[in-house]
């Protein structure tokens, strides 16, 4: 039951990520700014803590493959990034065990670093020609800010998913 709930929430979040990407870039004070939240990515990171690293890794692989196939520009960038950051999140939370502020900081920092990881890979392969400073100021930081707005909603979803897991185990 928990796997089905996580999968459905993941599909919805993936759709929401794509919907936000469709609205970008937005013109703010005459400058094109990209607001692309990483809702699915943040949800997978939160699952590492609340549903367990194995479940999170499974969905990191599954949704990483789905995103790589759907986007299709470079296969493997999402699956590798998701797996690497899930491992990092698991290691980070051995230190910051379930402190909300630390968790929010680590998840948003990982979101920022995932954006930089994508930029680095795409710029090395010459898929993107935007200078690093422009990328950080016009895409990475606005994306982290919009992700911060959605973080509380994702946090509640992750906790509810963990409760589904605990209730399912009690009933069996």
Automatic annotation (TrEMBL):
<keyword id="KW-0812">Transmembrane</keyword>
<feature type="transmembrane region" description="Helical">
    <location>
        <begin position="6"/>
        <end position="28"/>
    </location>
</feature>
<protein>
    <submittedName>
        <fullName>Rod shape-determining protein MreD</fullName>
    </submittedName>
</protein>
<dbReference type="GO" id="GO:0005886">
    <property type="term" value="C:plasma membrane"/>
</dbReference>
<dbReference type="GO" id="GO:0008360">
    <property type="term" value="P:regulation of cell shape"/>
</dbReference>
<feature type="transmembrane region" description="Helical">
    <location>
        <begin position="140"/>
        <end position="159"/>
    </location>
</feature>
<feature type="transmembrane region" description="Helical">
    <location>
        <begin position="69"/>
        <end position="88"/>
    </location>
</feature>
<keyword id="KW-1003">Cell membrane</keyword>
<comment type="similarity">
    <text>Belongs to the MreD family.</text>
</comment>
<feature type="transmembrane region" description="Helical">
    <location>
        <begin position="40"/>
        <end position="63"/>
    </location>
</feature>
<keyword id="KW-1133">Transmembrane helix</keyword>
<dbReference type="InterPro" id="IPR007227">
    <property type="entry name" value="Cell_shape_determining_MreD"/>
</dbReference>
<keyword id="KW-0133">Cell shape</keyword>
<dbReference type="Pfam" id="PF04093">
    <property type="entry name" value="MreD"/>
</dbReference>
<feature type="transmembrane region" description="Helical">
    <location>
        <begin position="100"/>
        <end position="120"/>
    </location>
</feature>
<keyword id="KW-0472">Membrane</keyword>
């Amino acid at each position: 039951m928990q796997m089905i709930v996580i999968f459905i929430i993941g599909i919805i979040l993936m759709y929401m990520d794509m919907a936000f990407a469709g609205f970008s870039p937005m013109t703010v004070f005459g400058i094109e700014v990209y607001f692309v939240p990483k809702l699915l990515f943040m949800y997978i990171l939160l699952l590492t803590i609340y549903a367990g690293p194995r479940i999170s890794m499974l969905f990191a692989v599954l949704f990483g493959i789905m995103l790589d196939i759907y986007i299709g520009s470079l296969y493997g960038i999402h699956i590798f990034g998701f797996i690497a950051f899930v491992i990092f999140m698991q290691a980070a939370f051995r230190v910051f065990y379930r402190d909300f502020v630390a968790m929010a900081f680590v998840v948003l920092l990982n979101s920022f670093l995932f954006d930089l990881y994508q930029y680095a890979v795409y710029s090395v392969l010459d898929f993107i020609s935007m200078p690093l400073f422009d990328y950080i100021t016009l895409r990475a930081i606005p994306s982290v800010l919009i992700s911060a707005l959605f973080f509380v909603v994702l946090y509640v979803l992750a906790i509810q998913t963990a409760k589904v897991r605990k209730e399912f185990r009690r009933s069996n």
